[in-house]
Amino acid sequence: MAGHGSNHGAEHVPRDLVLIVESEPDVDPNEVDRSVRQLRAEIKDLDVESVVPVASENAPPSAKGVDPSSLGALLITLTATPGVVTVLIGTVWDWLARHAAARRIVVTIDGDTIMLEKSSAQERSALIDTYLRRHEVT
After folding, report:
1. What is the dihedral of CA 108, 92, 119, 33, to 10 degrees?
2. Residue 24 pLDDT level (bands cut at 50, 70, 90)
């Protein structure tokens, strides 16, 4: 009986994801803030534990070197629900396509970073598939 269920809980531990929105250099910081708030609202509708903004002075290490005035960062605590990362990345891509002011979104899970930029559907698909294979809960 020893060891029975020893993996229980380990696969259901929530993980944190850092999401950074980088805007075009000439975009009004208020527009960036407004856009990031819209993205946050969309993500909150997904099956995630929490979505909290990260102040630029407390930006995560992955944000180093990015102009804080053109940066919107969110800390997202993921649930262990299968498919949550796939749905989240799809939502972020969709949001990026609808917001001209956003140039790129940087997503980091467990120290592994992917830069989502406006690109063709084929490029997006290949990039996302590779990243998701490394992080999706099954």
Report:
1. -90
2. confident
**CATH code of the domain containing 43:** 3.30.70.1430
The model carries a pTM of: 0.71
The total domain count for the chain is 1
- Does any domain span residue 109? yes
For residue 5, being part of any structural domain is answered with: no
Q: Is the pLDDT of residue 11 over 60?
A: no
| Residue 11 CB neighbours (<10 A) | 9
Mean pLDDT of 33-40: 92
**Distance separating the N- and C-terminal Cα atoms of the chain:** 26
Compute the distance between CA of residue 86 and CA of residue 119 in angstroms, rounded to an integer.
Answer: 18
Give strand pairing partners of 107.
19, 114
